Amino acid sequence: MITGARLVDLSGTELVRFNVAPLRLQRLGLGYPEPRVSATARPGRDGEDDTTAYHGASAITLELVVLDNDVVGRDEWVARIRGYLAPGQRSWLHVASTDWPVERRILVRGDQAPAVFESRGAQKIQVGLRAPDGVMQSTTVTTQTLYPTAGAQGGAALPWAFPVTLDPGNVPGAATVTNGGTVAAFPVVDIYGFCTDPVVKNLSTGQQIGFVGLTINAGDFLRVDFAGRLVLLGNEIGQSRYPLLDFAASTWWSLPPGPTLVAFIPGNPGASCQAVLSFRDTTI
Predict the structure, then answer these.
(1) Pair 146, 263: CB distance under 8 Å
(2) What does the pLDDT read at residue 41?
(3) Are 158 and 232 in contact (CB under 8 A)?
(4) Which residue of 140, 154, 164, 264 is most buried, as measured by CB atoms within 10 A?
(5) Does the structure show a pLDDT above 60 at 168?
(6) How far apart (Å, rounded) are the C-alpha atoms in residues 49 and 230?
(7) Facing residues of 108 across strands?
(8) CB 38: neighbour CB atoms within 10 A?
(9) Which H or E run contains 76?
(10) Model-level pTM?
């Protein structure tokens, strides 16, 4: 059961709670994201070949009752809510439920917030939001540190005694991460130097992101944002390393629901070299 909702700006500052006096949340509607349909008719026969795989934005509605308040008047609260939802502003809508261990959040902008000013007393308003990503994320971030080595690489001593059992070798920097959501989550990976031409590989699918001609010095880090498709040294906008991607071998992969085996494979790793992978459980 939904127990509350609140609006938080992109810096993490709470703007308003929709379930604390003088506001009363009556109903929350989380719309299904619009499928980006990709389908063609089958020539000479019924049906169609449907290859739809992606979705667009979703619509959210909040039905509120705004009460009169001696500190801040009813009409002022309505004006504030309308201001928070200005079309050019982006915020996080946090939603709590008795069925979820933590809140979930969804990026929103205002779509409609009509105000009909009536006589004194409670006023009902319906707020419409647009969620560009169409998905909800856990407010808790899951992180996994990936190291460039994982112990001994295996081997066998002679003479051999038959039958021979060969243990599988270790994969440098391999670890299993689990997306507890229902749809794919896109990770962010911070790669710390010193290393050269690092590769972050999804061993479950064989996909990878790698670099050619890239050096990350000790004390520096490279942020690889899989959702935004950004590669920034020190997470600075003016320090893009996108041109150094190995475009022939790289794919912007994601973490499907459930466990995924990932690996960090850098060249010439120094003592401080490691990668920190982070993501949020994602639901539709």
Answers:
(1) yes
(2) 96
(3) no
(4) 264
(5) no
(6) 34
(7) 91
(8) 11
(9) helix 74-84
(10) 0.85
